[in-house]
Every structure is written in structure tokens, then in C-alpha cells.
């Protein structure tokens, strides 16, 4: 598998969105930033180490790309493709 992968495909394979058309709408709507720069092209290449900032219905997610996938697999495989960088606010409140 190539280390680079299209942004729209990666969002589907990592199970961030369910359909590629949803990924396209998210990207073209300006809700995706790659390494702090807004991305408007769905075919933008991702590589391990890149950081995505996504504005979703559930809130803002900041994730670090760890790898690429050849297909949309089970959730257990998808979770290995990224690391959630943003701290979970519910965890912070429990510690206080």
C-alpha cells in the first residue's frame, strides 16, 4: 500500500464518514484543515504524520494520520489509521 492516500478515500476508510460523497461535501464545505491549512480539493494526498482538523456535527476533532488502508475495513482496523490528538474534555472534568 502506498504511503500517500487521497483525503476523501482516507476519511471513508478510517470511518470518519460513512460515504465518499459525505467526505467530498465535508472537504468542499471548508470543514477540513490539513496541518492547519484549509483543504478544498478532495484528492489532496495524505501521508503519515499529517494532522487533520475536522469540524463535524459532533464537534471539532483533531487527528494525526498514522497510516493508509487499502479498503474500508472493520472499526478495529480503522482505529489503527489515526490517533486522536485533541484531549477529551470529559476526561479532564473527571480528574478535577
What would your notes on this structure say?
The protein is of the alpha+beta class and 96 residues long. The chain has helices at residues 7-13, 20-28, 75-78, 89-95, and strands at 5-6, 32-34, 37-38, 45-46, 51-56, 59-65, 82-84. α1 crosses α2 (20-28). The radius of gyration is 13 Å and the shape is globular.
- Strand order of the biggest β-sheet: 3-2-5-6-7
- Which class do the helix and strand fractions yield? alpha+beta
Mean pLDDT: 87
What's the helical proportion of residues?
A: 25-40%
Tertiary shape: globular
Report the span from N to C terminus: 44 Å
Question: Nutshell version of this structure?
Answer:
This protein has helices spanning 7-13, 20-28, 75-78, 89-95; strands spanning 5-6, 32-34, 37-38, 45-46, 51-56, 59-65, 82-84. By secondary structure, it is of the alpha+beta class.
Topology (elements, then pairings):
Elements: E1 5-6, H1 7-13, H2 20-28, E2 32-34, E3 37-38, E4 45-46, E5 51-56, E6 59-65, H3 75-78, E7 82-84, H4 89-95
Helix pairs in contact: 1-2
Please give a handful of descriptors for the protein shown:
96 residues; alpha+beta; Structural Genomics Hypothetical 15.5 Kd Protein In mrcA-pckA Intergenic Region, Chain A; globular; disordered C terminus
